[in-house]
């Protein structure tokens, strides 16, 4: 099956692929040759449990997706300047999953193209230019989106923030300004947005849009408190702007209870624009922007045609339709609720058991485990998170850590993830946390020789060694002292922030 | 095979697809249900000869492309953070088609993503921001590219041009400032670029890049005179910027003689960045940026990871490899030369015969026929071009007209286009031109009643009726008087500008 040995593949990659394109586990990357369901297999046939691939939404290499693709590829694959039933049928099916006013689609090829187009729609509709974005947000890799992604531009120095970009605090009730003990964190965070808008307006700025992932993914698996989006939408509308819900990472039933993550905010909330991406085609390059008739008409009124060469082609639409069918037929939304709740419960038990687990939060099969060195100060346990990720890889489990401190274990597996998978991965994490806590305590007492062969050895230089084990690397704001014993010893009293699904 | 009647498809499209997304032949769009080779079939089984789909490069629904896609889809489709042989093998094969220094690839999903990334590379490498672009250029639909596409931003009013954008004249030796009778049009157009750069620098601007399609497509099938790119590259390099060759429309052997259209400029010319798109995957959403090690390293030095979720996935790479194989195995580059030369010759005969044909230019299977109302003044025959396109559609031939005056018939068919196809389409054009010329003369003499049933009737309101029959609609600078007989009567003396392939 292999054309090259792993070493040759790596050498060719170093020669011909841009060095900015990182591999997982840079020191010892994985070569994957096949996958099915929630499992991936390397060149030696070793099986990995995939806890991170939200793109392979209905499971890797799903036969029904392949069948739909082949059937259409054999017939026709052309652009949307010709009429085709797949395009309109898919638009009809997709909009049927959304609130009624979200009825007009633009088919594009990636989450980045979708978010860029959302900005164009917002700017044309509002006649304004400025954007309010959340801290730690990531919305894509094209120029216009790097500009509104603090996750990215913060790495380029303080001057990288453009004047038209206004950064609101992430509505993080574990680590942010207003926490779980605040009486109205949704209102408080929304008031921040209002203040930011008012300040911008005083300086002559005009707001085109507020954009946020319905749940922040790279930003650290942040679940905005319910009611936050409603209030923000009020303020943004008052300023003449629109609300863009970025569902690129979290849409298509992942949250279990609802098909779209923004719906967790309540039935009274409807964004003006929704962008989709990763899971939409189970890996096929496609994505979509859905908006209101009013915004679409305003965009059309400029007279400028919008043409996307590959967007909405019959093959992409056939695949999109197959994905919707499979989610329904295999009740993957139900599975996300069922297995997600189970996994969440198991992780909450870990929180009870291990001081390193500061917070467990999530909805359906989108869960974050926030590791801390100190339950009171909530000092991010970055090196420990990276250590766990690395050790899990040795145990053939693929998990990642993200967030501004890279300390949040990030679950977003294919939606066919099973109870057994959940049990297995948490058992492994339990063992690793136990080892790590013991090793840390031993080390704190200086009773462990630095050259010990013990598998309980703390990660040395773990952070730099493992830094490629992240979708995107954020700078670490806090200084992490690896010789410090971060345990507070006190049991945590953080309330469960699981959204009931 | 149909889910909906054509009327239902159209109604659903109007309901659910953004009104900015246009169809071909808006008054009576075509519903296509299958295609193979250079032929497309509508819902009634009517066969259309496709002269415009440069995306279906190796032929619609090519079985070897489908086979490669299925084989890989059944195995694995995941992101490029895992090692995979397809990625490196494809990068190796693709860079082997390019001059040696172009050795580093970034795989993305569309021509727009490719050109946006090219700008990011150029800006990071140069530390500059400004861009020199050609008049009438179109480089893509994302925000950053609308900004550098006069074809688009000119439609938004004079203020739409950003300060960092500098527009150089298109090196059009038929209709531009320096024409076929100029002793050194390449040098003269390049000097324009130098002057623009120097003026910008005097005003404190710093040039990051010069970007141009190797041959302008939407801009009117413009073939830059050989030597132009070399000189421009000197001036851009002197200013600290880079040369980006946009091969999204014209690459992959279409020009016959060479695999890349920039190579027509001469072996001594090598761009710093090449972007690819449309034909690369025969319709599969994929594309690529190739650059030098030096630029790639500079981009990497920012520390910012570049991650593209779908870019370079094993399925896209398998398809890309299949397309390269087919081009080679079926000698499509040879066919582009062979059939392209034949088609060009036939069209030159039309130029001898018909006063409406002002210019025929092209290379391989990329040919433009510039229609004029007046051979001396070269007044664009816009309505006539639209009429011909519409009449060809009735004869089941798909052709389009583009350029700033929408008067250039644009040939860019699948590369399997045959001698018979060429003969057939030119015969039809000959008939239509004859009809049109006769009708125009008759009408000029006021001898034809306006309500005549004659098929020789001039298009009435043709321009607005047919305006969707274009990839993108540009404003028409010249006023077109439909009652004027534009014939000069003189035979043209325009030298043949066919690039020998």
UniProtKB/TrEMBL annotation, chains A, B:
It is found in: Mitochondrion. InterPro entries: Aminotrans_3, Aminotrans_3_PPA_site, PyrdxlP-dep_Trfase, PyrdxlP-dep_Trfase_major, PyrdxlP-dep_Trfase_small. It holds the Pfam family Aminotran_3. GO terms for cellular component: mitochondrion. Its EC number is 4.2.3.2. Homotetramer. PANTHER family: ETHANOLAMINE-PHOSPHATE PHOSPHO-LYASE (PTHR45688:SF1), PTHR45688. This is Ethanolamine-phosphate phospho-lyase.
């Amino acid at each position: 099956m292999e054309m090259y040995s792993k070493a040759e593949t790596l050498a060719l990659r170093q020669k011909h692929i841009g060095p900015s394109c990182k591999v997982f586990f840079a020191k010892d990357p994985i070569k994957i040759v096949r996958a099915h369901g929630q499992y991936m297999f390397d060149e030696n046939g070793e099986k990995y449990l995939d806890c991170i691939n939200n793109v392979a939404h209905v499971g890797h290499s799903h036969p029904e997706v392949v069948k739909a693709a082949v059937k259409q590829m054999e017939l026709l694959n052309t652009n949307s300047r010709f009429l085709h039933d797949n395009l309109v049928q898919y638009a009809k099916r997709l909009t049927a999953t959304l609130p009624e006013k979200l009825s007009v689609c633009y088919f594009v090829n990636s989450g980045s193209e979708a978010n860029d187009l959302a900005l164009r729609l917002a700017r044309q509709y509002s006649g304004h230019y400025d954007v309010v974005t959340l801290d730690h947000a990531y919305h894509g890799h094209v120029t216009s989106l790097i500009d509104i992604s603090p996750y990215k531009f913060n790495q380029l120095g303080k001057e990288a923030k453009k004047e038209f970009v206004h950064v609101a605090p992430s509505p993080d009730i574990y680590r942010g300004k207003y926490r779980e003990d605040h009486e109205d964190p949704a209102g408080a965070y929304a008031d921040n947005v209002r203040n930011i808008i008012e300040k911008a307006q005083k300086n002559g700025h005009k707001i085109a849009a507020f954009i946020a992932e319905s749940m922040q993914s790279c930003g650290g698996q942040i679940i905005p408190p319910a009611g936050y989006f409603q209030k923000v939408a009020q303020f943004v509308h008052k300023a003449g702007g629109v609300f863009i819900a970025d569902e690129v990472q979290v849409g298509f039933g992942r949250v279990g209870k609802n098909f779209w993550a923004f719906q967790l905010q309540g039935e009274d909330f409807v964004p003006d624009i929704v962008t989709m991406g990763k899971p939409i085609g189970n890996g096929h390059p496609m994505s979509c922007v859905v908006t209101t008739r009013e915004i679409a008409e305003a965009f059309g009124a400029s007279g400028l045609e919008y043409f996307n060469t590959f967007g909405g082609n019959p093959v992409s639409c056939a695949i999109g339709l197959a994905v919707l069918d499979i989610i329904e037929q295999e009740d993957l939304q139900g599975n996300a609720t069922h297995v997600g709740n189970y996994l969440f419960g198991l992780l909450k038990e870990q929180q009870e058991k291990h001081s390193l687990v500061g917070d467990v939060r999530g909805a359906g099969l989108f869960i974050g485990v926030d590791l801390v060195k100190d339950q009171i100060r909530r000092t991010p346990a970055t090196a420990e998170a990276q250590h766990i990720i690395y050790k899990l890889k040795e145990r053939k489990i693929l998990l990642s850590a993200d967030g501004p401190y890279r300390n949040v274990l990030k679950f977003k597996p294919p939606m066919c993830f099973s109870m057994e998978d959940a049990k297995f991965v948490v058992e492994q994490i339990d063992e690793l946390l136990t080892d790590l806590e013991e090793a840390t305590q031993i080390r704190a007492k200086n009773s462990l020789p630095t050259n010990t062969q013990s598998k309980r050895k703390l990660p040395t230089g773990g952070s730099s060694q493992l830094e490629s084990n992240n979708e995107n690397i954020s700078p670490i704001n806090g200084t992490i002292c690896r010789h410090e014993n971060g345990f507070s010893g006190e049991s945590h009293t953080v309330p469960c922030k699981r959204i009931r699904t």
